[in-house]
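Q: My labmate handed me this sequence with no annotations at all. I'd like to see what the chain might look like in three dimensions before we decide whether it's worth expressing. Could you predict it?
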Amino acid sequence: MSLRNALPKIITGTVPGMKSKLLIERRDKAAPSAVSCVYPVAIARGEGAMIEDLDGNYFLDWIGGVGVLNVGYSQPEIVSAVKDQAEKYFHGMFNIVTHEGYVALAEKLNQIAPVKGEQKRTFLTNSGAEADENAVKIARGYTKRPNIIVFSGAFHGRTELTMTMTSKKAYAKGMGPLAHGVFRARFPYVYRNPEGMPEEKEIDYYVDSIYKVFEECGAPETIAAIVVEPVRGEGGFIPAPIEWVKAVRRLCDETGILLIADEVQTGFCRTGKMFASDYWKDAGCAPDILTMAKSIAAGMPLSAVTAREEIMEAVPVGTIGGTYCGNAVSCAAALKAIEFMEQHHLDQRAVEIGNKVMSRYKKMKEKYEAVGDVRGLGSMIGIEFVKDKDSKEPDPDLVKSLIQECVQNGLLVESAGIYGNVIRFLAPLVITDEQLEAGLDILEKAVAKFSKEK
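A: Here is what I predict for the chain of 454 residues:
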């Protein structure tokens, strides 16, 4: 049986085994400890949704490079496309020579990105943070306004600007002063609404927090853009309610503010459509600018910003660009990855996977006192753990224990949430049904070990 269809298997008793342990020890001496890792896994190869470590252990990967591997590890068609391009040339800086990959990928993204407007243009960058930062620059260039609004629980990156945009300031510890002109409103976190809030008042409550920014931080005519994650990622896998998005869209239209959808983690079939913003477009509230990265190129470094032509063409010459932007090998990977997603209907597969995971998670919520909430969109799903259902007190220590218990049984899962008490589901969309059930079994056994039944 190939690794692609294998199931989790630990042959060393505990992990890491000796070979993996030696590499991890070398890592600890050679690389900065600030780039931390809690997983005792040293990868030897990966196929589909599976990893084999240096000692021959098999792990099912529900992290996927934190959303990078929607098409899985080592898809042969994508490997072949990368090899073919590498034999021609690795790189051609787009400011110096025009190359087919950049143009073809920009054309494809202009076709599929659900932003407002008929004529679109795409700028290629290298990382999610770089895409988000350039989206802000593009919005400022178009509106001639200095400020932006972001939200509680947001994660947008680790550059100076995106570190400021990111809500959790553990990511900015000792890094001040941070960027100016970044204001924050409340993202709809329905599970943790203020006590006693009636459901019919939710949307107004969260929209009002934007108006408070106008009153307390910057008038609307000074705001270039509002930046929203369609599903709050690092902040706990919380989908933005569509009625709230509609209200934000109306507010933007009334004030001349641009709406930016940060789809770095949600894009490329993860949520059941090519982009989560497709749901917005279907509801009549498409964004003005869309940023994307992670699964765009199957693991090769690449990201992009797409906007309608009038916005992109307002950017002053020389203010956006970069040496590696739109690298030829990465573009080749992206074009083939998108083709693979479309041919294999990974958007539909994400819905199938998500339905199975949500069904199992809801049963766990009914059964175990520690499971406080489950939510998601497509196969981007969060399960939130608490000390008890009545108090909803977050239990990050339980999540840490679950992560280590799962890895010892061949399943890689990762935490999220502003309290560190959420486990996120980001398994490659090529995961087999048998692998999915095996992973769900491992997770539930871990939950049963550390949590009492209701």
